[in-house]
UniProtKB/TrEMBL annotation:
Alphabetized GO MF terms: metal ion binding
Domain of life: Bacteria
Transmembrane segments: none
InterPro entries: Pectin_lyas_fold, Pectin_lyase_fold/virulence, Polysaccharide_Lyase_1
Gene3D superfamilies: Single-stranded right-handed beta-helix, Pectin lyase-like
Organism, as annotated: Ferrimonas marina
Keywords, in A-Z order: Glycoprotein, Metal-binding, Signal
Protein name: Pectate lyase
Biased composition regions of type Pro residues, renumbered to the chain: 68-81
Bias (Acidic residues): 35-67
């Protein structure tokens, strides 16, 4: 159970060090990662619910996952008695390798991240973030753009308003958001994108937002972990994303995709991916994708999204103790591996258990999109799928509770014993999940901002809806020049890399002529997403024009913000001076560096 109390900087005291011992998982051995991989292009949109193919040829001599047919074990016996103020979930039996988060279990948890422990002598660089500026000396970007092992600590808190996305492209980094003073760090206006190995990100908020003057909508996931699919065809490995709040994206709020392996996603609050916002396809509120090999998705909340809560394409995956609330479509979409060509020789070994789905106002009902926990699309021979002991709404399937079998024959891969597990992973009983996650999930559960607190309360009280906008004021997006008009059909300039003729696009919105012939006139778009070129869209409207627009006219499409998130919460800029230990590269008796133990001492300030 995660129930820390406030604690002094115990990690700097030798007596305290002796009480810190750790447990770890039996994950696979670390391989040498590539250095500074080439930047890939933007993640393409996933197709919606494709049909499954017939079974491909069975792969040859696949790697066997760890197995444990018994009920998952409880926590290991504690080590020495901790200091009375020390969080008890950071005191456990010692073992090797050290988990990057003390006492925690997960794939990739054995990463050294930015600690420099893999070097002889141990060496890392501490970057103090002293400004909320998007770039420059003392900025978060300066730490991210650094090379070699590095740790980002924060002497400042508030909004980091980005003028372009943050790209983690160099390996071995720790972003220690727990070091920021209250109210913590919120990254806004563009995405945080990760394309590197050996990464730990903790205790930050990321909210891309809907600023019409910001980056392209297709580049506004809030957090995107992207692998090597488009560059060197190598997995990005050893990634831990823990205690993050991600919301107000234009596409997925939180994604791990395109050749990633050995990853843990834990204790996150993923919510309010914007629905009928500025995405070229129209309604597009997507929660999270986990497309990775050897992945643990554990104790996460997804709330107020249309779909992907999560979407799961994992050859080896464990999905446990997660909560979805008011997902319009399915809670957990177990998608076919055929959707990723780099998994052509893989099959699925999956444990999905003790998860909870709570329907909300936007939850859809019907034969395929009911309030079940999981939709199963699996067709690969040798697959083993354990989807059991989950709670959902009123969906009934007496043969397989909370599961809708979408792909014909997929139920043949159901197994009665847990096919993949991590020794020592703590599993909550299903009736404990909601209370525990409402207390402990998100960036700073002991110091939540107004938005995170509202979302948690909406889950608790069964209120709240999908949101179209961050704030209440309508705005125009896109805007540009009219190209041509033919009766009720009008072609508009629009620079989009994600238009799709099959989607509703801007249907139902108001097209307003902002200047030139026809200025001030508006019409309702009745058909909104023809894509004649990458630089234009073609729409139909509900009638002719009193004064017909021409190529001298400019237009705007009005975004209706009646369904909004209340605007950006007030976030005061605060500062405090950090005294980083002078000997921070030294190894303590626990095996961690002095710097790491110092960082651990901040957990109690932000975790409830």
């Amino acid at each position: 159970m995660r129930n820390p109390t406030r604690t002094p900087f115990w990690a700097l005291l030798v007596a305290m060090v002796l009480s810190l011992v750790v447990a770890c998982s039996d994950s696979s051995t670390t391989t040498e990662p590539p250095t500074d991989p080439e930047e890939p292009p933007t993640d393409p949109e996933e197709p919606t619910d494709p049909e499954e193919p017939t079974d491909p040829e069975e792969p040859t001599d696949p790697e066997e996952p760890p197995t444990d047919p018994e009920v998952p074990p409880v926590d290991p016996s504690p080590g020495p008695d901790p200091d009375p103020e020390m969080p008890d979930h950071y005191v456990c039996e010692a073992s090797e390798p050290l988990p990057i988060i003390p006492c925690q279990i997960g794939y990739g948890m054995e990463t050294v991240a930015g600690s420099g422990r893999h070097l002889d002598p141990v060496s890392t660089t501490v970057y103090k973030v002293t400004t909320l500026a998007s770039s420059g000396e003392g900025s978060l970007r300066a730490c991210i753009d650094g090379s070699g092992p590095r740790v980002c600590v924060f002497e400042v808190a508030g909004y980091i308003e980005l003028d372009s996305r943050l790209d983690i492209r160099n390996d071995y980094i720790t972003i220690a958001g727990q070091t920021a003073p209250s109210p913590g760090i919120t990254i806004r206006d563009a995405m945080l994108r990760i394309n590197a190995n050996h990464v730990l990100v903790q205790h930050i908020r990321v909210r891309a937002g809907d600023d019409p003057d910001g980056s392209k909508p297709s580049e506004r996931d809030s957090l995107l972990m992207i692998g090597g699919r488009y560059s060197d065809s190598k997995d990005r490995e050893y990634i831990v994303l823990d205690h993050i709040s991600a919301s107000w994206s234009i596409d997925e709020a939180f994604s791990v995709t395109d050749m990633v392996a050995n990853v843990t996603v834990s204790n996150n609050l993923i919510a309010e991916a914007l629905n009928y916002s500025i995405h070229a396809k129209g309604k597009h509120s997507k929660g999270t994708m986990i497309i990775a090999k050897w992945a643990l998705y554990h104790r996460n909340i997804v709330a107020h999204v249309d779909d992907r809560g999560p979407l799961d394409v994992t050859p080896r995956g464990i999905f446990t103790n997660n909560l979805s609330y008011n997902t319009a479509q399915v809670g957990h979409r177990i998608w076919g591996l055929k959707e990723r060509s780099y998994y052509d020789n893989e099959y699925r070994i999956n444990t999905t258990m003790n998860n909870v789905r709570i329907p909300g106002e936007n939850t859809l009902y019907g034969s395929n999109q009911d309030d079940q926990w999981a939709i199963l699309q699996t067709s690969r021979s040798s697959s083993k799928v354990y989807v059991e002991e989950n709670l959902c709404g009123d969906y009934k399937n007496d043969d397989w509770p909370c599961v809708f079998v979408r792909t014909s024959g997929a139920d043949q891969y159901r197994v009665k014993e847990i096919p993949i597990w991590l020794d020592g992973l703590e599993l909550l009983e299903v009736d404990q999940v909601e209370a525990e996650l409402l207390k402990h999930a998100g960036a700073r559960p002991a110091d939540r901002d107004e938005t995170d607190e509202r979302i948690i309360n909406e889950i608790r009280t069964r209120t709240g809806t999908l949101k179209n906008c961050v704030g209440p004021d309508n705005f125009y997006y896109p805007t540009g020049k009219v190209q041509s008009v033919s009766g009720s059909s009008i072609t508009l300039s629009y620079d989009s890399d994600d238009c799709d003729d099959s989607k509703e696009g801007n249907e139902g919105r108001k097209l307003v002529i902002l200047s030139g012939p026809g200025e001030g006139e508006s019409r309702t778009i009745t058909s909104g997403n023809s894509c004649p070129s990458s630089s234009s869209i073609k729409v139909s409207v509900d009638g002719g024009w009193s004064t017909e627009p021409t190529s001298s006219s400019t237009y705007g499409i009005e975004i209706d913000c009646a369904a909004n998130a209340g605007g950006w919460p007030e976030m005061k800029e605060t500062t405090r001076t950090l005294e980083v230990p002078a000997n921070y590269n030294e190894l303590a008796e626990s095996g961690y560096t002095v710097l790491e133990e110092w960082l651990h001492g901040f957990y109690a300030e932000v975790e409830d």
